[in-house]
Amino acid sequence: MRADQKAKDAADGPGSARLFEAVERRILNEIVSEELKVGDPLPSEKELMEAFGVGRPAVREALSSLRIKGFLEVRRGERPVVSPPNTSPLQEFMSDFGRVLSLSEDGVYQLTEMRRLMESALAWEAASKATEQDISDLMRINEENASDIDAPEKFIAGDLRLHRKIFEINKNPLFEVFYKSFVAWQMPLRNDTSQNALEVTQMQHTAIVEQIAKRSPEGAYSMMNAHLYRTQSRQVEQARKRQFDKE
């Protein structure tokens, strides 16, 4: 190994976070500017080392980070290639971030507020975009859910199906990311499965579905907002009690 290469590798030790981040940023900039397009292979590690003036560890760390984030696809024995947009890393990050944020009262408030505002807007859009099949599906899911009101676990599963269907009506894969991340942090917070709580939820679900079926964006928005405001208030209060008990 050449002396200058040894110096580069030494510089790429534990304190070299900025080096690999700079390499990662430069490669990502080339993807964003379309100098590198989807399906294009990256230069070899040696070429990247020479182009960026860094050692092998910094290049490998940058490539690994870009792969984890979904920007590159790496196959054994081949150069990494630019991947098409992949929402899985974003979903995983948002799910983990939400679970950590939900450990505090403020975090629960922020998460439930975001959910309330987003899903209310999606209900508005669903009332405008839903096909006859979409409305039929919503009504069927809601009716099935009503029949499970005496079985909390089945009812909650049906509850999730109803909300997911409203996300799906909007046909935007990014909304699917938000839905799955909501499920990840919401489920541990959902501990009120009393008969009264489930009956109120079912009543509110029915009101939401009716407004979407009527093609009333304002009504769908209002009903979803009221439904999730109740959920938000209850979950924030639970988080407050949990935090108080810890203290």
From TrEMBL:
The keyword Plastid does not apply. The keyword Transcription regulation applies. InterPro entries: GntR_C (IPR011711), TF_FadR/GntR_C (IPR008920), Tscrpt_reg_HTH_GntR (IPR000524), WH-like_DNA-bd_sf (IPR036388), WH_DNA-bd_sf (IPR036390). Coiled coil: none annotated. GO terms for molecular function: DNA binding; DNA-binding transcription factor activity. SUPFAM superfamilies: GntR ligand-binding domain-like, Winged helix' DNA-binding domain. Keywords: DNA-binding, Pyruvate, Transcription, Transcription regulation. Residues 17-85 form the HTH gntR-type domain. Gene3D superfamilies: GntR ligand-binding domain-like, Winged helix-like DNA-binding domain superfamily/Winged helix DNA-binding domain. This is GntR family transcriptional regulator, transcriptional repressor for pyruvate dehydrogenase complex. It comes from Litoreibacter ascidiaceicola. It comes from the Bacteria. Pfam families: FCD (PF07729), GntR (PF00392). PROSITE patterns: HTH_GNTR.
